[in-house]
Specification:
alpha/beta, about 35% helix, 9-stranded mixed beta sheet, 12 helices, about 425 residues
């Protein structure tokens, strides 16, 4: 196989260009889904795809898709994808290197005069990060018909309805079910991503082949007690929503720690308190928690146990509690043969190890219609979802080269 090194200077320019489409009132790189900055970046990205020679379209879920024809019209497409939205105060590499790296794959193939047997699709999935509508991986859910009517009617803090926001990006929610992709509609899904964790950087290893991707179940919880005077209400006569919520947070931590497994984690990352005054007993709390693990049955077990124990405790405390399951993504165990091909082709480029992904990805949903594979490059000091997020361009170059090698191997051998 010829040298498949990408043009890292060209890719660097693209990464730095898209990083200018940000909310400059925030720290780091903030390009939230459905915002003005996100829309501007999508216009630029679609133009970049077309400049590369890809035939572009926007599907019903507002995913941007760039298509490259293959030599065999009977074969299903191989998809390379990721996302270009960010968390608030995030970094400039998460997701972005996967989409722009995919475009660089196409440019490199064209420059080498290589035509794939399979059609190739480069996909920028809509709003992969948790959105203001309380949902993440919106584009990949929509691609496979997993956006329910209840999800589509959710509103953000501005009162916008999700279905309207998707349509505003060029999607068509009325066609989601009709145009949903089914199992077998794609031959393979591949993604290049920064690790978002410390393993590769700590071990000084440039590449990782992902063995599995955690499932994530996320819930919104409403706790209602009784507001009262903080000075005149005795401790044994209080119905303190915040104190009760604190008990629940510690209970979740204890349940997840009790599994004694590195891939099982539970987090409460969002909390609001009413009336939020120093001299008033909190009467209402709303919080969101998530549980992640590589085994779906473990997530179900922990979530059910937590809900059961929380409801039992609420009855003892005379405090109301309500759970709303706002999203679920199933875990993914990568096929052995896919891992083998990825490892062989990553090893041709640089030292490689196997490792799981503790973060969720669009791959969790695309796994419902096609086999998936992921390649990781290091995140310096394990930092991610913050302004300090960093992956060197030398490491990104190795990742893209490994992705090209792997794509060519799969294209040759997949039926």
């Amino acid at each position: 196989m010829d040298n498949m090194q990408p043009n890292i200077g060209r890719l660097k320019n693209d990464i730095e260009k898209i990083s200018t489409f940000i909310d400059r009132s925030k720290l780091g790189h903030t390009r939230r889904g459905f915002t003005k900055e996100y829309k501007e970046a999508r216009v630029w990205l679609r133009g970049k795809m077309e400049e590369t020679g890809l035939e572009t379209s926007i599907d019903a879920a507002a995913n941007i898709i760039g298509k490259l024809k293959g030599s065999d019209k009977n074969l299903k497409p191989i998809i390379i994808g990721s996302h270009t939205d960010t968390v608030e105060n995030g970094g400039m590499y998460d997701g972005t290197i996967g989409v722009l790296g995919g475009i660089e794959v196409v440019r490199t193939l064209k420059e080498k005069g290589i035509t794939l047997r399979h059609p190739l699709e480069i996909v920028d999935f809509t709003s992969e990060e948790p959105s203001e509508f309380g949902l993440s991986t919106i584009g990949s859910k929509g691609m496979i018909g997993e956006l329910s009517e209840e999800m589509l009617q959710r509103k953000d803090s501005l009162g916008r309805v999700l279905s309207d926001a998707i349509d505003d990006l060029g999607g068509n929610c009325s066609e989601l079910k009709k145009r949903a992709r089914k199992k077998g509609d794609a031959a393979l899904y591949l993604e290049l991503h920064n690790e978002l964790g410390p393993v590769l950087d700590n071990k000084k290893i440039p590449l990782g082949v992902v063995t599995g991707i955690v499932g994530i179940h996320r819930y919104k919880v409403l706790v209602e007690g009784e507001s009262n005077h903080a000075g005149t209400t005795p401790m044994n006569m209080r119905y303190d929503a915040l104190a009760f919520t604190s008990e629940l947070i510690l209970k979740l931590q204890g349940l997840c720690r009790g599994k004694n497994s590195d891939d099982v984690v539970g987090t409460v990352g969002k909390l609001s308190v009413e009336p939020n005054a120093s001299n008033v007993i909190p009467g209402k709390c709303e919080f969101e928690f998530e549980i992640r693990a590589l085994q779906n049955e473990v997530i179900d077990e922990l979530a059910n146990k937590f809900i059961q124990e929380a409801e039992e405790l609420s009855r003892k405390r005379n405090i109301k509690i309500k759970f709303d399951n706002i999203s679920k993504s199933s875990s993914v165990i990568i096929d052995e043969n896919i891992k083998k091909v990825l490892k062989e082709n990553c090893d041709k480029v640089a030292k490689t190890v196997h490792l799981p992904s503790g973060a969720g990805h669009d791959a969790n949903h695309i796994y419902e219609i096609a086999p998936v594979g992921m390649i990781f490059v290091p995140s310096k000091d394990g930092r991610s979802h913050c302004p300090e997020e960093y992956t060197s361009y030398e490491e990104i170059e190795l990742g893209v080269e490994a992705l090209i090698n792997s794509l060519l191997a799969f294209d040759k051998n997949l039926d």
